[in-house]
Structures are given as structure tokens and as C-alpha cells.
């Protein structure tokens, strides 16, 4: 029997040494544990459709050098923090000066705070299901620690620009940890962009810890270029009456993957997860989501929509797990998918796992093409077929884009989606 491929030793050589000692120790421990880690294959259930796109060559193992100044890709009103190749760039950032809000790079943490953070990293994720998150912990060279004290409110959105400069081949490991105390509130926009023409791997991890009544809006934009492989994971733990609003927008690439795991751990916690993915050419995008209803009286609402064109491939796997003590849970999941060509492929797998008997749960998935009747209606009223195709495709996803609470982000995303769809229908 052929042995399963394992992670190359080249990926276990951490480069940066500016971290406080507790974080360096954690990184070394994770690195040792990853020795000879089996890589996902087609037989790995949650990588069934994506393993063939995962190419962890030794060329990608080296950490890309950091430190270049960068600016936001979105010209918006808000605070900005720049991570260049996974390292915080203070001189390119605009940190907020708001009572009760502290934003610190991992490298600048004192040993006491670093030890507290080291004990909490990875606690929001099922690392057996999200294998590549463990690699991030073994390799991160810096990160962003966001702390909201009790009742603290960040008055404007915080934009974290994670830029990959691929002037040479290599990998980067952006890391963000948000610790939101009781009744705190903020909007976080993660913006992943890239420059350069060489192949690069981005292995990004973001974690949220929400105390009682905390309210976090998370917007995640995957906007990297065609030469960038992106494997991302987001984990969140919610205590009583906490709320997480998540909005993910992803454009395809050679490999794009995002794992989103949310645990509703105390009564009254609730979340809304919205996602939009578009792929074209031979691109690939894989979304895996998990919502754990651990406590009673918790609500979740999940809506993801995919559009695939040409010979591209999109995947959605959504799982809702209602634990035996999670009575009075209310959970809904919807995944709708649109194929714009006969060569495109979308695989969808909504899952409900219920161990409580007093719950309201529903899930559904559809895969289809544009409605020819609707197209005929628009064309018969003088609208060009290409424009009609674009209008109907945008209508399919606009409902979710309109729910993004930051106007400048909505407008930018809508414009880029519109260009994507127009390119798809060129010559139609």
C-alpha cells in the first residue's frame, strides 16, 4: 500500500525570532507535533474535493520576507492595520485611540500577556478538522492581538490588510486574535490581497472569543491574485447572549479554502453566517462551515451562495451540530448555487446532526442555471443578452452583499463582482 504523503520538513523551519518567549515556545511545540503530519488526500473526507489542488512544495516552504509598507486596497473611512507577509507594519497602520480598545502586535506583547495568549491560541478550532491551522501556529512570525474591555465600543470599522508580496516563492502566516469582553462591540474587516508574480501560500488564522453580550461583525474578503494559494481558518466561541455576524466574500484562485467554526456555548448566543463565492477559468474555492449548538436557547442563520463559470469548481460543506443539552435551538442553513457554464462544477453538502428533541432546524441546497424564461423576458424588452445575464447573476448574490454593514466595502465588492460576471459573459 502506498504511504500517505506527509508534510515536508522544510515547512517546520520557523524563521522569525522577534516573538516573546511564550509564543516562541508554543510555536516550537506545534512544530514538533507536526513532524511527519499526513497531508490531506481524496480519502480525507473534508478535503475530498480540494486535496488535488493542495501543492505544498518545498519551494513554498520558505517564509517570505516582510516589512514593506503597504496601504489599504479599499479607500474607506476607518482604522487600518497592515500585515505585510504576516508581520505587522506599524508605520503603515492607523491604530485607534479609543478607551477600552487595545491593538498590539504579537512581537510587542510583554511576557505575561504573551503567556496568556499562548494558552488561548487554537482553543476556538477543532484542529483535527482544520489541519492547516496547526501549521500556522507552528510558523507565524507575528500577529495581531485585539482586546476589547468591558463595554468598549470601537466607533469605526477596523480594517486589517493582509498583504502578500510574492516577489519570490514562499509562504506567509497571518494571525489575528480578538478577545471581546462583556458587552463590547466592533466591526473587523479582513482584506487579503497580493502583489508579485511568483507562487505563494497564505495560511491565515483568525480567532474570536466573545464574552457575555459581546457583539462582533466580521467581514472577510479574499481578493488575492492568481498566483496565490490561500488556506484560511476562522474560529469563534460565544458565551451568553453574544452575537457574531460573519460576511465572507471570496474570489477563486488555484486553491482557495476557508474553514469557519462557531461554538454557541451559553444560552442566548447567536450567529449569522453569510458567504458569497465566485469562480471562473480553472479556479477552485472550498468553504467548510461548522456551527456547534452546545447550549440551549441559541439561534443560528447561515446563507451561502456560489457562482461557478467556465471550468471552475466551488465546494460548500455546511454542518450544524445540535448537542443533546441544546434544547430550544433554532438553526437554519441555505446554500444556493449557480452554474454559468456546462463545464463548471459545484459540490454542496449541507449537514444537520441533532441530538436534542425540542429544536427548530432546517437546511436546503439547490444547484441550477440561469432561468431561461427570465432571460427571455429581459431580452424581449430590449436588454442585450450579455447585460441580462449579468443582471440575473448579480441579483442571485446581491441579497447577501447588501447585508454587509460597511457601505464602502459593499460598493467595492459589488463593482468587482459585476466585472467578474461581465467577463464571464463576454461574447454572449
Automatic annotation (TrEMBL):
InterPro entries: Fe-S_cluster_assembly_SufBD, SUF_FeS_clus_asmbl_SufBD_core, SUF_FeS_clus_asmbl_SufBD_sf, SUF_FeS_clus_asmbl_SufD. Residues 168-396 form the SUF system FeS cluster assembly SufBD core domain. GO terms for biological process: iron-sulfur cluster assembly. It comes from the Bacteria. This is Fe-S cluster assembly protein SufD. The gene is sufD.
Amino acid at each position: 500500500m502506498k504511504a500517505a504523503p506527509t508534510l515536508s520538513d522544510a515547512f517546520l523551519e520557523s524563521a522569525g525570532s522577534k516573538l516573546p518567549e511564550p509564543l516562541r515556545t508554543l510555536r516550537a511545540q506545534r512544530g514538533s507535533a507536526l513532524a511527519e503530519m499526513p497531508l490531506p488526500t481524496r480519502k480525507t473526507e473534508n478535503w475530498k474535493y480540494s486535496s488535488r489542488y493542495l501543492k505544498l512544495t518545498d519551494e513554498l516552504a520558505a517564509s517570505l520576507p516582510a516589512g514593506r509598507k503597504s496601504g489599504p486596497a479599499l479607500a474607506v473611512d476607518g482604522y487600518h492595520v497592515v500585515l505585510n507577509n504576516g508581520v505587522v507594519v506599524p508605520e503603515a497602520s492607523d491604530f485607534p485611540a479609543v478607551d477600552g480598545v487595545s491593538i498590539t502586535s504579537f512581537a510587542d506583547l510583554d511576557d505575561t500577556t504573551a503567556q496568556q495568549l499562548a494558552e488561548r491560541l487554537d482553543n476556538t478550532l477543532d484542529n483535527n478538522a482544520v489541519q492547516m491551522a496547526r501549521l500556522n501556529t507552528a510558523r507565524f512570525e507575528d500577529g495581531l492581538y485585539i482586546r476589547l474591555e468591558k463595554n468598549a465600543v470601537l466607533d469605526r470599522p477596523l480594517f486589517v490588510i493582509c498583504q502578500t508580496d510574492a516577489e519570490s516563492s514562499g509562504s506567509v502566516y497571518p494571525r489575528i486574535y480578538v478577545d471581546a469582553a462583556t458587552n463590547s462591540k466592533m466591526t473587523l474587516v479582513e482584506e487579503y490581497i497580493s502583489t508579485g508574480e511568483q507562487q505563494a501560500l497564505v495560511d491565515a488564522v483568525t480567532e474570536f472569543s466573545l464574552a457575555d453580550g459581546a457583539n462582533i461583525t466580521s467581514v472577510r474578503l479574499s481578493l488575492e491574485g492568481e498566483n496565490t494559494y490561500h488556506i484560511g481558518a476562522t474560529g469563534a466561541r460565544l458565551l451568553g447572549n453574544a452575537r457574531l455576524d460573519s460576511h465572507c466574500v471570496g474570489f477563486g484562485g488555484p486553491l482557495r479554502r476557508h474553514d469557519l467554526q462557531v461554538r454557541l456555548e451559553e444560552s442566548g448566543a447567536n450567529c449569522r453566517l453569510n458567504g458569497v463565492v465566485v469562480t471562473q477559468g480553472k479556479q477552485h474555492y472550498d468553504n467548510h462551515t461548522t456551527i456547534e449548538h452546545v447550549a440551549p436557547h441559541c439561534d443560528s442563520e447561515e446563507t451561502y451562495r456560489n457562482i461557478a463559470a467556465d471550468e471552475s469548481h466551488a465546494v460548500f460543506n455546511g454542518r450544524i451540530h445540535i448537542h443533546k443539552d441544546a434544547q430550544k435551538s433554532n438553526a437554519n442553513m441555505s446554500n444556493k448555487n449557480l452554474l454559468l457554464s456546462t463545464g463548471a462544477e459545484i459540490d454542496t453538502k449541507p449537514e444537520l446532526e441533532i441530538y436534542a428533541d425540542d429544536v427548530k432546524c432546517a437546511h436546503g441546497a439547490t444547484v441550477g442555471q440561469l432561468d431561461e424564461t427570465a432571460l427571455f423576458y429581459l431580452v424581449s424588452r430590449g436588454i442585450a443578452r450579455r447585460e441580462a445575464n449579468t443582471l440575473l447573476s448579480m441579483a442571485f448574490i446581491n441579497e447577501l452583499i447588501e447585508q454587509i454593514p460597511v457601505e464602502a466595502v459593499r460598493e467595492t465588492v459589488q463593482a468587482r463582482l459585476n466585472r467578474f460576471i461581465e467577463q464571464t459573459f463576454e461574447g454572449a
